[in-house]
Specification:
The chain has one domain. About 45% of the residues lie in helices and about 5% in strands. Strands 1-2 form a two-stranded parallel sheet. It is globular. It comes from Brevundimonas nasdae. InterPro entries: CHLI-like, Mg_chelatse_chII-like_cat_dom, P-loop_NTPase. This is Magnesium chelatase ChlI-like catalytic domain-containing protein.
């Protein structure tokens, strides 16, 4: 499985976001297992029709103002968050300093835990 983290650093306009958006196309095709996992998560979130399969690796880019529930999942009608929706693909956190130091550390720690647990129990 693809379990790597990347950090793009550079001045505004240098192509960091464009490069990140291209990552899913550079990764190997989804395996049968990854295809089923990804499609199940997206189906639960209501992003694909029941029974359909998504063949593309996910690319998720939540806004820095996204709530913890939006990033990690949950809410009144529990739905997968951005971390789960990016499973087997790319979770792009653009302009990380905009999150604020404490919030960024909290987000990253929780996202790491959620991603680790998701991989562990799926």
């Amino acid at each position: 499985p693809f379990d790597y983290g990347l950090l793009f650093i550079g001045p505004p306009g240098s192509g960091k976001s464009m490069m990140a958006q291209r990552l899913p196309g550079l990764l190997p095709p989804l395996t049968s297992q990854e295809l089923l996992e990804t499609s199940m998560v997206w189906s639960v979130a209501g992003l694909i029709e029941r029974g359909a399969l998504t063949r593309d690796r996910p690319f998720r880019s939540p806004h820095h103002s996204a709530s913890m529930a939006a990033l990690t999942g949950g809410g009144l009608r529990a739905k997968p968050g951005e971390a789960s929706l990016a499973h087997n693909g790319v979770l792009f956190l653009d302009e990380l300093p905009e999150y604020g130091a404490v919030m960024a550390q909290t987000h990253l720690a929780l996202l790491w835990r959620v991603c680790f647990e998701f991989h562990r129990y799926v």
